[in-house]
Amino acid sequence: xKIAMLTNNYRPFVGGVPVSVERQAQELVKLGHQVTVFAxxxxxxxxxxxxxxxxxxxxxxxGSPERVIRYCSQKKKMDNGxxxxxxxxxxxxxxxERERFDCIHVHHPMFVGPWALWLGRKYGLPVIYTYxxxxxxxxxxxxxxxxxxxxTPVKKKAVEWIQKKVIPSYMKWFCNRCDMVFAPSAGMQxxxxxxxxxxxxxxxxxGLDDSYFRRNVKRAQEIRTEYSRGKKHLFVTVSRxxxxxxxxxxxxxIAELRHEAGDDFHVLIxxxxxxxxxxxxxxxxLGIQDMVTFxxxxxxxQVKDYLSAADLFLFASKxxxxxxxxxxxxxxxxxxxxxxATGADDIVEDGVxxxxxxxxxxxxxxxxxxxxxxxxxxxxRKAALISGENYRSSSLAIYEEMLYNQCGFRxxxxxxxxxxxxxxxxxxxxx
Length: 431
Hints:
By secondary structure, the chain is α/β, with parallel strands linked by helices. The chain has helices spanning 16-30, 50-62, 90-98, 112-123, 153-175, 186-194, 217-227, 247-261, 276-286, 300-309, 324-331, 344-347, 361-371, 374-388, 393-410, 419-430, and strands spanning 2-6, 34-40, 67-71, 73-77, 83-85, 103-106, 127-130, 180-183, 201-203, 233-238, 265-270, 292-296, 312-315, 336-339, 354-357.
């Protein structure tokens, strides 16, 4: 099968969507399919290093099992580093004119989304869409829609109208023009249905490749020694350092934990983003600057070792559609303490492989203390490992293959048939 995947962001941008697209593409290639990922270009932040930056991207693309075709993006970026795709993706359109694809899998409803629908209609191809992002919670990245203390009541009402009316209406329109929608979790499936979507919705989470289930004990111990700072416990969290990840609450929760249980622990924060400087100031204000290390971005293939090194994975985000890193923590056998939210509620079984709490610092801190109790910890660690097995990419890719085929049959196209199969079927029809 020849599969076209369209995305608004991809490596080197660090985030859940690029990770999801890359893992899906590479697992489908292992099954014998040809996968082409159409992804935007990235200029880099330093003009002096632009050429070498591009060379690194092209080198990474050439070394990957999936084919990557870059289409032009605008020079202006969002505050979180994401790019704005170009208005007319000529590279995508010209490739579709030259080649015959069997299906289109689009990962965003905006920018490349309408083009995916147009290409699907033009070439009679099934269009599958993965609902990765709750866009109503990301409006602050668009300067004209950003709310602050100086915002007028009119602007606040306008943004609220966009959040509650415009985006749900658009998502309903877009999803109903696709042949199938993938929801990363049961909670997201329910939310999408609430928009009034009639298109079939399949639960399809982002998976983990087999490397996530192979623990490097030596490397994990090295990381623990380096970052525990001589403390008894090491906690870790991984995500972009952005407003929607709720790091303000996480830091206040850490301060509360110190108040309740003392300071015999260290917290490692992996990730980068526009809020980094502000968060560092926050640790100083709270008096926990010596208890928190900001490690920056870590390559995806190394994150599992950091998760294995930790006693607990701490998470406070309320904007996750799935929370890929929660599944990664489970695969590492690291119990999770998280705030109730879509995504977290679908992965974390309260009291089994971790704890879920309300957004209250004292409750969150108390659950961390409870999780570390000997009578609880080993059982949760074993349960986390079992939960992680549900997210093996190799198994999910087979399921994805089946879903693609279902869409093909609905379009009247048997995606898996060879030319010989078609000939035999035609001959039988004639007889």
